[in-house]
Amino acid sequence: MKLGINLAGADFGAGQTPGRLGTDYTYPTRQEIDYYAGKGMSVIRLPFLWERAQLTENGPLNASELAQMDAVVGYAASRGMQVILEPHNFGSGFGHLIGSAETPNTAFADFWGRFASHFAGSGNVVFGLMNEPHQQTAQQWLGSANAAIAAIRSTGARQEILVPGSYWSGAHSWVSTDNDTVIGPGIVDPLNNFAFEVHQYLDSDSSGTHANVVSASIGVERLSAVTQWAEATHSRLFLGEFGVAQDATSLAALGNMVAYMQAHPVWVGATYWAAGPWWGDYMYTIEPTGLGSGQVVDRPQMDVLETFLGSAAPQSGAANGTSLAGTSGPDLITLPTGSVIYRGGLGNDTVYGSADADLIYGNQGDDRLVAGRFMGAFGRDTVFGGQGQDVVDYSSNGIGSFIYGNMGDDTLTGGSGNDVLYGGQGQDLITVGDGRNLAYGNLGDDTLVGGTDSDTLFGGQGSDVITANSASGMGSLIYGNFGSDALTAGAGNDTLYGGQGADTLMAGAGSDVLIGGLGADLYVLGNGTGRVLIVGFDQRGGDRMRIGGQTFSVGVAQNGDALLSLSGGGTVDLAGIRAEQVNASFFG
User: Fold this and answer.
1) Could you tell me which residue ranges the Glycoside hydrolase family domain spans (predicted)?
2) Which residues belong to the active site?
3) 225 CB contacts (<8 Å, ≥6 apart)?
4) Could you tell me if 357 and 291 lie in one domain?
């Protein structure tokens, strides 16, 4: 996933158009581009005003503005960076709503035809249609977007296009509005080279106007629905704006969200909001202090983002605590008291956390990252394993932590709090502790072991082995997702989703719901099976039941479904199947 920055400034001075360059608005300098390229960022989102780029509707483009953009695009190309050129007009132009009689779709298409023709030969340019349309309905905006796309492609320009939805194009609201049902299937691009651009802030109302985030997991929660929609519809997503303040919870939320996106390939990129020299003390700014002075100091948000970038530059600051870094050799580190950001070096490191809220990055090497060795309550930590075969042991931690294995075959162990664990790439072993946990195997053939509470476990891609150990009265959700997975229920009331592939679903002693999904699935109903509901059983599609030598009788459930009574004491409700349809071919 490409990760970059919004270099704002050309969109400033909206009340002064065309305005004066350097007084009302500004463009990124080479010094700024060098800084972000040096951090490993690969894309710049450059917001500008339509009324500056084209002084009148249907008129020629403004040569002086094009020259400024050409300079940014050309220098960014020399640093290996893409540039997203996007009008920052919120769905309007020249004081009127796009699609209105005053600013019709033909005027919007005229601009994009001229603009795309100018940049058609710039291979590092991405066309962002518009920033945050919100007054139009989705159907109205669809007409505007398709008119612009048609104009772009008519010039011969083949670059990627970023398409927002209406209603501010919020990621959290994509499927709760009709963006998913109107914009999603309605976009027409003859080259099919586009992604949907969404924005997401983590404050109470997703507006990006408050300093405090809701929680450290809110980013993951707000991206989940649109991510699942994109995976189901084979769509591509780009997060055009996201930003947080500098407190520890905000930084943890930032890391959690970016890690979640990297674990889901439907996310093709993201650009942080914002940077640029005119932000001053803006709460989300990531512009370093001292740029050009020789004493550059990174913002704490950059310390988090660097974990996901290719840069090896040392971090220079930490929020609410101390910043420590490992060496190129094998380090043994015990973190001091106080919130610490620790970045491991190249060797095989062992790191023991403190009793406070730490951010721990293993980076390269086979690392062992362990929760605080102190008595009493431990801090709410965020841990990134990095490259290598890492062991992250938080079994002694009583407060929920966020643990990311990232690359390599990792072993992740949660504690007694409500943890979030991500395996990342590789064949990972993830064992959650007590508490209500969320675990993702992600890429590779992973093994996930649940705890005694109510957990949610996702296998991800690969053929995964997932076991719920929920106690009686509890209930876990298990998703195999892709691959041929083996899912086992516990003693609680569990729900198992096989997903794609030929999956094996084993019932437990509670009241379980088993949903095989696509593929020829095997339902294992052994002695001790409780009350089971099987949804979507398809004998003709290769689904089978295995009852382990038990005998059975077939009756009718109260809802009319076939109801199997097993000699071992269990019952099986076959949803949508009548009793007279059950025959020997159902078993195997």
Assistant:
1) 10-275
2) 132, 241
3) 172, 174, 175, 176
4) no
